[in-house]
Design brief:
The chain is of the alpha/beta class. Helices cover about 55% and strands about 5% of the residues. It has 18 helices and eight strands.
Length: about 475
Amino acid sequence: MENNCFNMTPLGPSAHNKLGTVCIFGTGDFGRSLGLRLLQAGYSVVFGSRNPQNSSLLPKGTQVLSHLEAAQTSSIIFIAVHRENYEFLSAFSQELSGKVLVDISNNLRKNQYPESNAEYLAKLLPQSNVVKAFNTVSAWALQSGSLDASRQVCVCGDNCESKQMVMDIARSLGLTALDQGSLLAAKELENYPLQLFPLWRLPMYIATGLTAAFFIYCVLTEIVYTFVTEGKDHSFRIVVSIANRVFPIVSLIMLALCYLPGVIAAILQLYNGTKYKRFPDWLDKWMLCRKQLGLVALALAFLHVLYSLVIPLRYYASYHRHIYTISQLKDNKSLTFDNIMAWRNDSFYSLGILGFGLYVLLGLTSLPSVSNMVNWREFRFVQSKLGHITLLLCTAHTLVYGWNAFLYVSSYRWYLPPAYVLSLIVPCIVLVLKLILITPCVDRVITRIRQGWERKPAHAPHDTTGQTLAL
């Protein structure tokens, strides 16, 4: 047995494996789908079944035998049965000795058993070469020809030749084989299909929490306050007006949260004087989900754009326009042109359009199909420099929206600041800290640290001769 042997060969299947015979134990959905793909690739397929007579659902062109007979036809056997049924394999331990057993099973929940299914199978049949593979590929992926599904097949095992055989088969099916190392990685591979959007959970929790908090805040300060103090029912504003106030607020905060961990990381590196000290776990997890944070923020910004387009069409807006026009006619007054208001209005829309345009660009470059077409420097330029410019434009868009309203006491209902003021806290913190970090004197130190330079301790230990000891 050879441990920790990684295959780096990107070539197709070996000639001696092509058009060979592959055995599959199990006639369920996955076994049938795998058998069909193997047939299409040119392999001979033999199914091992406890009831060989019941084979009406199996692909035409395959052979169905008992488990004992099927085991003798091929040197590689796919075990497409559940772990609970592995015990029957012990009866064929002699026939399975030296053969490659591909464990494709998954569990109902993560860490369901102390050891992985593949490790359990290896203990059950120590004379066989067990390889964990194909558990991350669904029956649908095999049936669809991998055109609309994942093409990656993660493979792990303790024998390099056995892994090579499985990886050759995966490539012959048009899939991408990834060597994940020894059989110790099997437990991680078995947990992977059970994860439900692992990197999206924190962004969705943040988005949901912020949306709920600001929605309640806006309802309290705009709907409940008006009803209590003036007796007016403006609850209809919840559907469009409140929603269009909450979505951009949450979007701006989440965009700022995309860049806040990078600022914190730079500050920690400055404080530690080295890049070789590990970041806290919470910061590592935060930095890993920045892409998802940005995409959720983009979705909320897109909703804000749609709601803004709808606002002029509302009954409430047209009603106020008519009332205002009639009042001007009755009072024989005309509205004078305000140059400052014109600048404010045009700047507000211009900043919003530019910010949203860069927002979309950030989202597009985060897609794998686009990011694979640019080099690292180009990707960093878009995601970092243009990202901070996007944050600056969106923050300025919010500032122009609020203008000087925060100076008036009437804006503080029940002594609570307007919601847009709260939305500016995190973005302004990020922008101010980033401005400090990009100043030449600070940026020079950060660059040196990231190139490997380390700050020496203030008090280095000395030997008896008074000379500083080398650390």
